[in-house]
Design brief:
Radius of gyration: 26 Å
Shape: globular
Oligomer: single chain
Number of helices: 13
Largest sheet: 8 strands, antiparallel
CATH class of one domain: Mainly Beta
Distance between the termini: 56 Å
CATH superfamily of one domain: glycosyl hydrolase (family 31)
Length: about 700
C-alpha cells in the first residue's frame, strides 16, 4: 500500500549536541545521529538497528578529518570542503560544497505557513526525509527502470518484482540510491521496501520524499559529480571483480532446447556457419524435470551422460551455463528431508511456507510451476547445502549458473534469523546470488533479480522483454538505468523473450544494440539463432558479432576499471555529460566507456535521431569529423547504426579475423584525432574505418 506522508505529523525535535565526531539531535522517535563516514559521504541514522544486517554495505567507515560545530540550535560537520548542517528547530539540513548548497530539506510551504510535507518522518513503520528539488532538476538511479531515465515526477517503489516484462514501473533489480547532476546522492541503507516520490505531484512537485518501511532509517548523503557519486556509492555497496574473458563473448540460448542432441546440433551449426559463439545456456525446462525441480539434477531421460555432453560442448569451444531457481518442489524426492532439516522459510505457525505459484501470468506459454519450498539463505546450513549441490555441476563441466527468479519471497513468511518476509524480500536475491557466486569457479553468475550490493556478484540481465520495438527501447533504457545505479555489467534478451518472433529488421537492430553492450545474450521463447531470420539478417548479425569479438580487449579493460571505480561499461548521456541537458534527453544512446558513442536504432525504418555533445567527433563509417554540440537526423541502412569516436579518445581492438573471446595477442590502440601516445595508432578520419571487416 502506498503511504500517505502528507498526513504524517511533524516529528518533534529537541537538543542538538556534539559527541565525538558526530552530531546528535534528540527527537521523539529517538536520536538522529549525523557523522562523516568517508570522504564525500555523510551518514544520518535515526533509531537503532531495525533487524538483521544483510551485508549490503561492503565499504568500512573511514576515519577522516572532520570538524564538529554546535551553536545553539545549529550544528555542522565539515570535512574536505563539504559541510552537513543541521538545524534543531524547526528541523532542517543542508549539504554544502564550500558556500554552495547541493541539497537541503524541503522548502514546500502550505498557504497557512506550515510545511506541506514533513521534513523528518517517523510514524509507525514509516520513516524518511523530505528534500528540496529545484525546477528542472533531474534525478537518476533507483535501479533498473524501463521508462524514462530521469525519474522526476515519478513515485518509484524499490521492491524486487517479477515484472513479467519491461512495460511497467516494476523492476527485477532495485537500488534505493538516487542522485542528481547538481552534485548530490542519497542512499537508503535498508532491505525494507522504500518509496521515492521524486517531485511526485500528488505529494510535492518540488520535493523528493524518501520513505522507508521501518520506524527508523540509515541514510547516506553523497557529494560529487555523477562519476564520483557512483564511485562513492560503489565504495559503500561494492564493486564487481574481474570477469573471465569468455564472459564478454556471445551467449546463445532458447526458452528451451529439448535435449542434448538438439543443443549439440545448434552448437555445431553455429560453428559450421562461422557465427561467433562462446556460451550455451540451458534454461529451466532444457535440463531439469519441471515437476520435481530444483535440486540441480540433470534430467537423465534427456541427458543420460551430462559429463560427456559438457565435454562435447567444450570440444566445440563452448562454455556451459545452466538455469536454476532457489525453490524445491514438494514433489521432489529430497523435499521431506530438506523440510525436516529446516532448510525452507516458514509461515507464521512455524510450518514450512508452501509457495503456490500464480499460474495465470504464465498462460500457455510456459510450463505450470509446482508448489515449492523456499530455500532459507539466512540459515547457514541451508546456504551451505545449496552451495555444495553446485560442486556436482562444476565437476560435470558446468561453467556458470543462470540464477533466475528470487523475487517471490512473501511478506508473511519467517526466516531462521528471525526476520519477517517483508524485510527479507529485497535482501533475498542478494543472499541467493551471493551464495552461488561464492562457489563459482569463474566468479560469475547470470542473475535476473538483485538489490543494492548485487553489482558485487555480476552479471545481471534485464528480465523478459516483449519481442517488439518498444521492448528493445525499454531494454536499452533498463540497462542504462542499472548502470546509473551502480551496476557495471548488464545485458538483455536479444530479440525479446515473449511474443511473436521478431522480424528480421528488429532482430538485426537488437543485435546491433547488444553487440555494443557489456555482455550479449540471445534468448527467447522461439529460436534466436541467425539462420531463422533469413540470409541477409544472418550475414549482418555475423559481421556485428565479429566486430564485438574485436572489441573484447576494450570491454575487458573497461571491466577491470569497473572493479576499481564502480563505473558502468555503458554510460548513459546524463552520466557521461552531466552538464548538458540536451544530451540527457537522448535516453537510448550511450557511450561505451568514454570514447565510443553508440546510437541504437530502436524504431523500424532506419531513422534515428542522435546528439553529439560539445567537442570533436569522428563518424566511424564515413571518417567525417563533426563539431558538437550537434543534433542529427540520420537514415541508416540495415547493416549500420551511428557510431562516433570522441576526439582524443582511445579504443583497444583485437585484429580483424579474431575468433577468440580472449581477444588477439596482437591488439591495436586507436586514438581518435589528437596526439597519439607511444604505441598508439592515429585515426584522423581521412578514410573510412572498415569496422565490419570479414
Amino acid at each position: 500500500m502506498i503511504p500517505h506522508p502528507l498526513k504524517a505529523p511533524p516529528l518533534r525535535t529537541g537538543a542538538l549536541s556534539a559527541r565525538g565526531n558526530r552530531l546528535e539531535l534528540e527527537t521523539e522517535a529517538g536520536t538522529l545521529s549525523a557523522s562523516c563516514y568517508a570522504p564525500g559521504i555523510f551518514r544520518l541514522q535515526l533509531g537503532g538497528s531495525q533487524g538483521p544486517d544483510y551485508q549490503i554495505l561492503s565499504g568500512a567507515e573511514v576515519v577522516a578529518p572532520c570538524q564538529v560545530e554546535v551553536a545553539g540550535i545549529r550544528g555542522a560537520l565539515r570535512s574536505g570542503g563539504l559541510s552537513l548542517e543541521l538545524c534543531a528547530e524547526p528541523f532542517g539540513l543542508r549539504l554544502l560544497r564550500g558556500e554552495r548548497t547541493l541539497l537541503e530539506s524541503s522548502t514546500d510551504q502550505h498557504i497557512s505557513g506550515r510545511l506541506r510535507v514533513p521534513r523528518l518522518i517517523s510514524e509507525g513503520q514509516l520513516s524518511g526525509l523530505a528534500l528540496a528539488l529545484g525546477s528542472g532538476e533531474a534525478v537518476y538511479g533507483l535501479g533498473e527502470r524501463f521508462g524514462p531515465l530521469n525519474h522526476r515526477g515519478e513515485l518509484v517503489e524499490c521492491w524486487d518484482s517479477d515484472a513479467l516484462g519491461v512495460n511497467s514501473g516494476l523492476a527485477y533489480l532495485n537500488a534505493p540510491f538516487a542522485w542528481s547532476p547538481s552534485g548530490w546522492g542519497v542512499f537508503a541503507h535498508t532491505p525494507a521496501r522504500s518509496w521515492h516520490g521524486v517531485g511526485y505531484p500528488s505529494w510535492s512537485h518540488r520535493s523528493y520524499l524518501l520513505l522507508c518501511e521501518e520506524p527508523g532509517f540509515d541514510l547516506f548523503l553523497l557529494a560529487g559529480d555523477p562519476c564520483r557519486l557512483l564511485e562513492r556509492y560503489s565504495y559503500l555497496t561494492g564493486r564487481p571483480g574481474r570477469l573471465p574473458s569468455w564472459s564478454y563473448g556471445v551467449w546463445w540460448s532458447r526458452c528451451y532446447y529439448r535435449d542434448a542432441a538438439e543443443v549439440l546440433e545448434v552448437a555445431e551449426e553455429l560453428r559450421r556457419r562461422a557465427i561467433p559463439a562462446d556460451v550455451i545456456t540451458l534454461d529451466g525446462r532444457a535440463w531439469l524435470e519441471v515437476r520435481t525441480r530444483c535440486t540441480l539434477d540433470f534430467d537423465r531421460s534427456r541427458y543420460p551422460d551430462p559429463a560427456g555432453f559438457a565435454a562435447q560442448l567444450r570440444e566445440l569451444g563452448f562454455r556451459l551455463c545452466v538455469w536454476e531457481y532457489p525453490y524445491v518442489s514438494t514433489e521432489n524426492p529430497e523435499y521431506p528431508e530438506l523440510e525436516q532439516l529446516g532448510y525452507f522459510l516458514k509461515d507464521g505457525s512455524g510450518a514450512t511456507y508452501i509457495y503456490r505459484w500464480d499460474q495465470e501470468p504464465f498462460g500457455a506459454l510456459l510450463t505450470p510451476l509446482p508448489d515449492s519450498g523456499l530455500i532459507d539463505f539466512t540459515n547457514p546450513a541451508a546456504a551451505a547445502w545449496w552451495q555444495q549441490r553446485h560442486q556436482r555441476l562444476w565437476d560435470l563441466g558446468v561453467d556458470v549458473i543462470k540464477t533466475d527468479f528470487g523475487e517471490q519471497i512473501p511478506e508473511d513468511c519467517r526466516a531462521s534469523n528471525g526476520d519477517r518476509g517483508s524485510r527479507l524480500h529485497n535482501a533475498y536475491p542478494l543472499l541467493y546470488n551471493r551464495a552461488v557466486h561464492q562457489v563459482s569457479p569463474q566468479g560469475l553468475v547470470f542473475a535476473r533479480s538483485g538489490y543494492s550490493g548485487s553489482q558485487r556478484y555480476p552479471l545481471q540481465w534485464g528480465g523478459d522483454p516483449q519481442s517488439d520495438w518498444e521492448g528493445l527501447a525499454a531494454s536499452v533504457r533498463g540497462g542504462l538505468c542499472w548502470g546509473m545505479s551502480g551496476g557495471a555489467h548488464q545485458t538483455h534478451d536479444v530479440g525479446g523473450f515473449y511474443g511473436p518472433p521478431p522480424d528480421p529488421e528488429l532482430y538485426v537492430r537488437w543485435t546491433q544494440a547488444a553487440a555494443l553492450a557489456s555482455q550479449i545474450r540471445f534468448h527467447g521463447t522461439s529460436p534466436r539463432e541467425p539462420w531463422f531470420f533469413g540470409e541477409e539478417a544472418e550475414q549482418i548479425v555475423r559481421r556485428w558479432l565479429r566486430l564485438r569479438i574485436r572489441l573484447l580487449p576494450q570491454l575487458q579493460l573497461l571491466g577491470e576499471e569497473a572493479s576499481k571505480n564502480g563505473l558502468p561499461l555503458l554510460r548513459a548521456m546524463p552520466l557521461a555529460f552531466p552538464g548538458d541537458r540536451l544530451a540527457a534527453s537522448f535516453e537510448q544512446q550511450f557511450l561505451l566507456g568514454d570514447s565510443l558513442l553508440v546510437a541504437p536504432v530502436t524504431r523500424p525504418g532506419g531513422r534515428v535521431s542522435l546528439f553529439l555533445p560539445a567537442g570533436g567527433w569522428f563518424d566511424l563509417w564515413s571518417g567525417q569529423r563533426l563539431q558538437g554540440p550537434l543534433q542529427l537526423q540520420q537514415q541508416v541502412p540495415l547493416e549500420r547504426i551511428p557510431l562516433y569516436g570522441r576526439e582524443g579518445g582511445r579504443l583497444l581492438l583485437g585484429q580483424p579475423g579474431d575468433r577468440s573471446p580472449a581477444g588477439s595477442a596482437e591488439q591495436v590502440v586507436w586514438r581518435f584525432g589528437g596526439q597519439p601516445a607511444a604505441g598508439e595508432l592515429l585515426w584522423d578520419g581521412q578514410s573510412s574505418w572498415p569496422l565490419l571487416e570479414e
